[in-house]
Amino acid sequence: MPGPEDMPGPDEGVYPSMMTASATLIGSEGNEIGTANFLDGPNGEVIRIELNPDSLSPGWHGLHLHAVGTCEDVGEFKESGGHHGKVEGAHGLLNPKGPEAGDLPNIWVAADGSAGYEAFTRLTALDSLLDEDGSAIIIHAQEDDHLTQPIGGAGARVACGVIQ
């Protein structure tokens, strides 16, 4: 599977007018565990994530875009705030009142703790993620059921990356 370094950027002439961003993902102990890359297109945004082996526990994990671009409170990652585009009672891709702009499909982590992920979303755009206080991408300890309030039962925040 091609890695983030293989994702075409605007300097390669493939997507000359499209905005790109990235985030280095850190785990709950402050170690670098992977990367997230963002490619903003005319109809939505592609997000690619690569996690190194032994990064997270195997299985499904909730994944959300959060409202503040900080991961400084390592282990908690609560300073990244609530979900990007939070609307009270609207969390979840399956919620009839939602979804929120920060809602994303879950990420599957393999038995060795690694992951490769690609998703497309029309719910947000990079210019809104790269606003004055920035945004973060957060991986949660459990899967998101895409309906339960406020975060789909996804549990603690176990990884964080500042989108830049």
UniProtKB/TrEMBL annotation:
GO molecular function list: copper ion binding; superoxide dismutase activity
Cofactor dependence: Zn(2+); Cu cation
Protein family: Belongs to the Cu-Zn superoxide dismutase family.
SUPFAM superfamilies linked: Cu,Zn superoxide dismutase-like
Record keyword Oxidoreductase present: yes
Keyword entries, A-Z: Copper, Metal-binding, Oxidoreductase, Zinc
Name assigned to this protein: Superoxide dismutase [Cu-Zn]
Function: Destroys radicals which are normally produced within the cells and which are toxic to biological systems.
Free-text comment on the cofactor: Binds 1 zinc ion per subunit.
Catalytic activity: 2 superoxide + 2 H(+) = H2O2 + O2
Domain Superoxide dismutase copper/zinc binding as annotated: residue spans: 34-163
Superkingdom, natural source: Bacteria
E.C. number(s) listed in UniProt: 1.15.1.1
Enzyme type, top EC level: oxidoreductase
